[in-house]
Amino acid sequence: MLVLILFAVATYFLVRLVQERGLPGTSGSGGGGRGNLPGRPKGPQGPSRPRPPAPRGPDDDDDFLRELDRKRRSERDDSDS
């Protein structure tokens, strides 16, 4: 049981070390994709760079919805005749 506890503690500290300093042989902010954590250098996605707008789905596009409604109405009018 003591060996298992020592292995768990050693693994924990090894993981924390890799999180803080990054993997050996890599550059940048640790390669974890979490570049803005405290104590890490700011990467190209630093606070001065604005985020791109979120992608919009077709149900958020007013022109698409308008065209879809127009098509439905024309199909409904054709089927009524």
Please give a quick description of this structure.
The protein has helices at residues 2-21, 62-80. The protein is mainly alpha-helical and 81 residues long.
Average predicted local confidence, pLDDT: 76
Give the end-to-end Cα distance, rounded to a whole number of Å.
83 Å
C-alpha Rg (nearest Å): 27 Å
How much of the polypeptide forms β-strand, as a percent range? under 5%
Helix- and strand-based class? mainly alpha
Low-confidence stretches: none
Tell me the total number of β-strands: 0
Which term fits the overall shape? elongated
Largest sheet: none
Number of helices: 2
H/E series: HH
Helix share, percent: 40-55%
Biased composition (Low complexity): 37-46
Biased composition (Gly residues): 25-36
Biased composition (Basic and acidic residues): 65-81
Biased composition (Pro residues): 47-56
Keywords, separated by commas or semicolons:
single chain, 81 residues, mainly alpha, 2 helices
Notes on the structure:
With 81 residues, the chain is mainly alpha-helical. The chain contains two helices and no strands. The protein has helices spanning 2-21, 62-80. The termini are far apart. The relative contact order is 0.06. The model has no long low-confidence stretch (mean pLDDT 76). Residues 22-81 are annotated as: Disordered. Residues 25-36 have a biased composition (Gly residues). Residues 37-46 have a biased composition (Low complexity).
